[in-house]
Every structure is written in C-alpha cells, then in structure tokens.
Amino acid sequence: MVFMQSYCETNSSISHTWVDEGISPCFYFTLVPTILLTIAFFLGTVHCVCFQKYGTAMEPKFIPRSRLYGFQLAVSVLLLVQFLGGTVWRAATAAGELPAYVVLYGCFSALSWVWATVLLRVERRRVMVMDRTRGHSTFLLLFWAVAFSAENLAFVSWYSPHWWWKLENTEQQVQFGLWLLRYTGTGLLFFIGLKAPGLPRRPYMLLINEDERDVENSGQSLLGRTDPNQSTWQGFKHKVRLLVPYMWPRGNVVLQLLVVFCLALLGVERVINVFVPIYYKNIVNGLTDGSSWHSVAMTVCVYVLLKFLQGGGAGTSGFVSNMRSFLWIRVQQFTNRVVQVRLFAHLHSLSLRWHLSRKTGDVLRSIDRGTSSINSLLSYLVFSIFPTIADIIISIVYFVTNFNAWFGLIIFICMTLYLTLTIIITEWRTKYRRDMNQQDNNAKSKAVDSLLNFETVKYYNAESYEVGRFEDTILKYQVSEWKTQASLALLNQTQNLIIASGLMAGSLLCAYFVTEGKFQVGDFVLFGTYIIQLYTPLNWFGTYYRMIQNSFIDMENMFELFEEEEEVKDDVNAGNLLFKDGKVEFENVFFSYTSGKEILNDVSFTVLPGQTVALVGPSGSGKSTIVRLLFRFYNIQGGCIRVDGQDISKVKQSSLRAHIGVVPQDTVLFNDNIRNNIRYGRITASDQEVEEAAIAADIHDKIMAFPEGYDTQVGERGLKLSGGEKQRVAIARTILKAPQIILLDEATSALDTQTERNIQASLARVCVNRTTIVVAHRLSTIIGADQILVVSQGRIAERGRHEELLLKEGLYADMWMKQQQAQDSDSSSDTETKDRASEKLQPPPPPPPSGHHH
C-alpha cells in the first residue's frame, strides 16, 4: 500500500533548489506544472471566454483540411495520457512512500494539457471576427514554448544522481523514456504550432471579403496589392530563391572566390571573439597571481593583436571586418548592377497595357527602394544575423563547459527572450512600416503627376489646390511615420530591460562564486567582457532584424514588378520575319482590351505591297487599335494577322518591328538634343545621315535656324518644340529607320493647315513604294489612297477609293459632307471677319449734296 507521508523525498525540502549538481526534483516537478496550469487556467479561460463571446463559428469551406493538424491533436492527447500513465506507474511501483509532488505533478500537468487540447479544438472551429492576424493564439504558443523550455531544463541536471541520466535501473529507464516522449512531443507541438496547419492561412474577414469580391477587381495592378497585415516572412523561401542568383556571381570566378574568402573571414572573426575575453582573463590572473613580466607581456601582446583583428570599442571595426567589407564591395556592385539591369529589361518587356495603367512615381520609388534594399538584405543576413546567432550558440556552449550550467541557462533565457520579443514586436510593427511606404508612394506619385502636368495646373490656376493635396499626403505620411518611430522606441526599451536583467543576474552569480573561492577574479572579468562583447552585436540584432524586415517590405513591390507577366511573348519556336514585298493581311480579327467589350469584330482586309490604305471613322471605332495590333502591342483573341503570308504571332517581335516604322499622333521626344532624337530611328547612323533625314522631313532649315542647331535640347517629352517641329522630328526618325511598312496614326490631326500641308508633302516622299497604313481624321488628306476602309463600331462598314465611296452615299459620303460644310463655314466666317475688319479701316462715305432728292 502506498503512503504519501511527506511532500518531498526523505532528507529533502522544496526550498532546496540546487542539490548535488542539479535542480532538486521536488522543486522542479512542483514549479513546472504550477506555471503551466496557471497559464492554462487564467490565460486559457480568458481566451476561451473571448472566443465564445466575440467570436463566430467558421464556415466549413474556410477550414483547411490538414493531416498535420490531426497529428498535432494526437500528440496533445498522447502527452495527456503520458502524464496520467506516468503518475499511475509511479504509484504502482513505489515501494512504500510516494512523495506528494509526484501526484501534484501528474494532476496539474494533466489538467493543463486537457485545457490546452480543448482550446486547440476551439481555435479550429471558432474565430475572432475582427482578428487581423493568422495562426494560433499567443496563449497556445506561449504554453507550448514554456512546456518545451521546461523539458530542456532537465539538461542542467546532467550530473545529478537524483535524475535519470545514468539509466542504472528500470525506474530510471522508464522515467527517461517518459521524458523523451515529453521532450519530443512538446518540441513538435511548438514548431508545428508556428505553422498552424489546421487554421486558415489568412485573416478570416479577408477570406470572406475576397470570397464576396467582384471578379473584375482581379485585374488590378500588382503595385500596392499586398495585404498590410500579412507577415513579412510570408513567401520567404521564394524571396530567398530570387536573391541567391544576385549574391552568387555566376560566370565570374574572381567574384566567386571573393564570396568564399569573405565567408572564411567571417569564421575567423567568430574564433577571435572567443579568444579575446580568454586572453583578457589570463592577463588579470597573471597580474593577481604575480606571474613573470615576460609571461604577462606575451599575453598582453597576443591580446592586443587579437583586439586589432577584432576591432576596438566605440563602433570601430577591426582589421578582419574592414578587409571583409573592402572585398565585398565588388560583390555588392555586381548585385546592384544585375538587379537594376534585369528589372529595367523586364519593365521594357511588359505590355503596352501595363505601361498605360502604371503610376510612374510608384514604379520609380519601388525600383529605388527595392534595388537598394537587396544589398542591405544580403549584408545584414550574411554578416550580421548569422554571425550573431553563431556567437550566441558558441557562448552558451563555452559557459556550460568552462563555468557551469547556470551561466549557460542565464544566457539561453536572456537570448531566447530577447530574440522572441524582438521578433514579436517587430512583426507587430510591420503594418506601420508598410503603411508608411504606401503613404510615401502616394506623396511622390502625386508630386510627379502634378509636375508632369505643370501646364494644366497653370491653365486652371490650381497651384494652391495641388500644394494642398501634396501637403495632405505628407501629413498622412507623418502620421504613419510617428507610429513607426513610437513602436521602435517601445522595442528598444524592451530590449534594454532584458539585456540589463541578464547582465545583472550573471554578474551577481559570478561575483558570488568568486567570493566563495570557486572562481578567480579573472573569471569575473572574462564573464563581464564576454557578455558585453556578446550584447554589443545582440543590441544591434533588433536593428538588423528590423532592417531585414524593412528590406523585405521595400522589396515586395519590386518582386511584384518582377512577377508581372509579359502579356505579349515570342513563341517558343519563333523565327525571324522573312520580309519579301510588304503584303499585310488581316483575316477575321477579333480583339478586346477587357473581356465583354469588343473593339474589333471580324475585321478583314489586305494591303498589297506598295499600296496606301487609309482607315477612317468616328473616334473609338478601333482605327488606332488596328495599327497597334499590326505592331503587336497586344495579342488578338481571334483571327490572324499576316505579313508576307507569315503569322506575326509566330515570328520574333524584334524582327517584325524592325520592318515597321510608326509616326504617332502624339510624338514624345527624349530629354536630349535634336540630333540624338532623330538618330533614335537608327542608333548607328552618322551625323550626315541624320541631317539627310532631317532634309527629307523638311526640318533641316528650321533646325539650323536655332542658335545651337542640332545640339538644341528639346526638353522633357520635347516640350520646347512646337507640335509641327516634333512631328517632323518623328518623320525624320522614321526616314532614318527606312522601314518597308509605314504606319501613320493621325500624324497631322492636331496641326494647323499650312504645317499639315508641309508635313503631308514630307510623308508623301517617305511613303513612296512602301506599304502604308494611314489612320486619318481629316478626309482631305487621304483622297489619293489606294483603298479607304471606313471603320464603325469595330467593323469595316465600307471600303473602296474616294470616288467610289462618295457614289455609295454611305458613312464616308456623310463624313465627307460634314467636313466640307464645316470647312466652308470656317472659310465664310474667316472671310466675314476680314470684311468687317476692312470696313473699319475704310473712311466713311461723303454725305449726299443738299437740295437733291431721290
């Protein structure tokens, strides 16, 4: 029969925490279940009440099916059974006296795990409606973390005869087996709990809103689409896979050797960090023990050499660190260059549709922040985070081995608390940083947009309105910035408190052992030196983590730009266009910019080599779209477009566009001189060829009249030139390119009559013996076309020559009549105005002679 005569074993007391080089079992097996039950009962009850009162039952379709969740639940039940079974076994095998703490341990532990298992089920079925996070609650993660940490404390008692490590009898072997089961189970629950397999991966309200959202919103730009509450580390593997090619310089052996050498120097720094405090300890011991001058001098010289390699205080870097930073410059430059070039090339490969919908300010800010953040990210990860974690592990092993387990435990607890709270608070701060970036983008976007439309602002006297809008965006940015800085101050204070607590606990313990004669004075110096040396990079760990997280946030938009798919791609087996005569065919072409709204409907026509075909019709009928499709800015939804019998979707875009010249309606020039703007038609052209093209475009004399001639700067988008001058520069470009097919998209619609006539004459010379498609607004400019196509509502309503279409008396005849009437009206009003002006200038007629009557 089992009796419980006392709470602890014979000759033992719960007040004795350290017995025979280990933690007292009575103290340990009382403290651990009490803490677990306290967490489970108080926090768990509050958690459960909140779920029942403020939560709602999740719809089954939003609960992911997961075998890992079933495993998680099974492990929880297994641990519960283990506690009950272990207690029963201890009671059954007790020879006489069974300490009361064994029963308390089994009962308290079982109760706490029952509560944790119940809450695991509750979280599976109910959710807090306004919760903007994902994953398990803080309570469950804390419970599993404490349980796993408690099992790790058993290692501190490795040399104690009161524990089971020696496995000398059946009882110790069974207890060791039960501990192994607990250790494995609590560790699995903690790490699986971080993944939260049985719960939705995103906030529940977000899932509901996405489920109800209209499908048409799916076509929005990727920029700014990121969920503000998602973790920065989401998709970490994917982001790292994108980063690795930029870090490892493929094809460059010298840079690869530099990367390897820098990593080797990193390892050397870790070794030096261990030996610096050791030699400092030897100096102190040598001075206190009365060692010879020669021995002390040698130790001091080695110490100074190590400090020179490691670096001194006040943030100065050592020789090894400086050498590594110097060698890493080339690798950093390689990374920066490759990222920017690849992104720039990718943006140029995107479709016209994307470029028409982009916000230039947003894109530029995303590129700037993204490219600069990649270098920061690689530097912080490789040279700050990983070395700091390595230093922590090395220090724990060193103190456990050379001091005792208490020092290793102090460092482990401090580091764990520091890193955990840093990560938790920084993750919480993420939304503020991301919102600050968004407000920054908005401010810069509005500024760029306003400056680009400077003339419009002046026309409508809206300077004060634009300044007010810009100030509003700055104020919103500053609100987000304040939240970011305030949360940063909170994080710094938390870190400072943990560091100070760990330093105080370790220093007091070390000083106690020195006073007891177990340690030397040098050991106290070693501990203080090592711990401060360890805390220095650890103090920056929060900054490193924040900078890494900020870099990930800054890179998100850039990654989204990289992931933006090319709409118009070359076919896998695409070859070059084999140009022969320049025959263009549209066969049953269907096209729409957005689904449900057709722009072209069953369009078919043929342009023979050397012919000029004109496209006319009302605005929005699809004329310019036909030109864009031939240039392959978009893919068609049906039909086929051929050049010399070759489907243009089966040939390379570059080879197709090399044979096509475009003179657009709105010519935009680069902010460069006139010579380089004309030379853009063919980059390799000489100055003489550029001038010959300008002569052919009838703009050479005009250019020579400028004070700087061909070196005249045209300004941003060519705003320093008039509309006619810009148009002739575009024509000169096209002449220099010498294409076989020419597309004119209402090239003269916005010009005055005289300028239009001059440019028409220039275009006529360009288009001789070339296949030409003209989109025209003024019908008088295309009377001589070989074929005129009248486009109406996406279809070709009429076709023929000018005279034939007039005889049909259809849409073309009606358009011609209206334009003639408008022209006659303008002419008559001009004549009437001139007559009135001349009448005002003529003297009044003389009065009739008196006495004469009529």
Automatic annotation (TrEMBL):
UniProt GO MF annotations: ABC-type heme transporter activity; ATP binding; ATP hydrolysis activity; heme binding
Pfam family, one: MTABC_N
Domain ABC transmembrane type-1: 260-550
Listed Low complexity bias regions: 819-830
InterPro entries found in the cross-reference section: AAA+_ATPase, ABC1_TM_dom, ABC_transporter-like_ATP-bd, ABC_transporter-like_CS, ABCB6_N, Type_1_exporter
Region annotation (Disordered) ranges: 817-854
Chain ranges of the ABC transporter domain: 584-818
Keywords from the UniProt entry: ATP-binding, Cell membrane, Disulfide bond, Endoplasmic reticulum, Endosome, Golgi apparatus, Lysosome, Membrane, Mitochondrion, Mitochondrion outer membrane, Nucleotide-binding, Secreted, Translocase, Transmembrane, Transmembrane helix, Transport
Transmembrane segments: 27-50, 71-92, 98-118, 139-159, 179-196, 257-280, 377-400, 406-426, 497-515, 521-541
Cellular-component GO terms for this entry: early endosome membrane; endoplasmic reticulum membrane; extracellular region; Golgi membrane; lysosomal membrane; melanosome membrane; mitochondrial outer membrane; multivesicular body membrane
UniProt KW Cell cycle keyword: no
UniProt catalytic activity: coproporphyrin III(in) + ATP + H2O = coproporphyrin III(out) + ADP + phosphate + H(+); heme b(in) + ATP + H2O = heme b(out) + ADP + phosphate + H(+); uroporphyrin III(in) + ATP + H2O = uroporphyrin III(out) + ADP + phosphate + H(+); uroporphyrin I(in) + ATP + H2O = uroporphyrin I(out) + ADP + phosphate + H(+)
Pro residues biased stretches: 842-854
Topological type in the membrane: Multi-pass membrane protein
Protein EC: 7.6.2.5
Entry's localization field: Cell membrane; Early endosome membrane; Endoplasmic reticulum membrane; Endosome membrane
Quaternary structure annotation from Swiss-Prot or TrEMBL: Homodimer.
PANTHER family documented for this protein: ATP-BINDING CASSETTE SUB-FAMILY B, ATP-BINDING CASSETTE SUB-FAMILY B MEMBER 6
Family: Belongs to the ABC transporter superfamily. ABCB family. Heavy Metal importer (TC 3.A.1.210) subfamily.
Protein name: ATP-binding cassette sub-family B member 6
Species of origin: Solea senegalensis (Senegalese sole)
